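The material for today's practical consists of a large collection of protein records. An example says more than a description, so a record of this kind follows:
***
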Amino acid sequence: MEKGKQRRVFSVDLKLDLVKKIEQGDLRVLDVTNVY
């Protein structure tokens, strides 16, 4: 991980959590893109 990204680890973790949910079928990609 780059040093510049360490300060935004929390936001990255949230996105990774969404990715995991999508892979598990809990969320659809379109649903996530609409949130952002």
In short: The two ends are 24 Å apart (CA to CA).
